[in-house]
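Standup notes, structure subgroup. Blocker cleared on the N-carbamoyl-L-aspartate input:
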Amino acid sequence: MAGLITMDDLTNEQILEILADAERLLPVARGEMYLPLLQGRILGNLFFEPSTRTRMSFETAMKRLGGDVVNLGDVKTSSVVKGETLFDTIQMVDGYTDIIAMRHPRQGAAQYAQDAARVPILNGGDGAGHHPTQTMLDLFTIKQAHGRLDGLKVVLAGDLRYGRTVHSLSHALTRFGCELIFASPDLLKMPEEIVSDLRAQGADVVETEDLYDSMNDADVVYMTRIQKERFADEDEYARCAGAYKLHARHLNGVKPDMIIMHPLPRVDEIDPSVDATRHARYFEQAFNGVVARMALLCRLLGVPVPEEVQGGAL
Ligand code: NCD
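Run returned:
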């Protein structure tokens, strides 16, 4: 069965259907009702890189739907340290599970894993490549706030060079006709091949270093962490660390319904003073990881989400 490796694996219509499924699953994600749609199914969580939200929200999603989860656990205590290849690990976990969520430091690893597996692979981040399940929860968050995805003005800011969340998100937003503003220090610009690919798809893209000025008529400001672990040169990291520090005082001239998002974890790019403003949406966004992943798990396992979600009481 096909998995989700990049956003190209989903049509716009499928994206909207999955978001609608996710919305109906909100009471299940909140634990207000129990709906064991995935009873008897097993998710394999294979995280070869640190993760809190992606791993835990996949696990929560599976368990809220009555399914089970097996974990690779800490890479240091798995056979990976004995030199097992990714190909072998995947072939084996394929036999233990019905679906696999995987994160790996190497770009392209998710596709490689999909080629080795019969079960669907959900790419939970492959190096600086893609992070499509994050994009699904990002789109869900944007749609909940603005009621639509099309035609919005979205600022993507921070580390656009190594940030996989913004690589996947910019492709999806382009397909929904959003206007994109890429705000980053010169060193961390969106890779040229991505920008030209987006433009070839008809994207309206502006690149700038001035984050604060670009926020004024935006509907969404998507902040990202500088991906320290992907820099080959520490001095290069030192030169762009702390490039943007969004503070509540920067929000005076913005649209009242503008939302600030962040895939988290944040370092210093959003000051805690922003948390209490009407614009902050990042913790809700992290919660949305549960519903978005519930809907994706159902879809890839071929289990329809009922039109009327009615579950038992807890
Ligand atoms: C992101 C990631 O791993 O790419 N985290 C996440 O999944 N929420 C962002 C990051 O690590 O900066």
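Discussed briefly. The CA atoms of residues 13 and 237 lie 40 Å apart.
Next: hand off to the docking folks.
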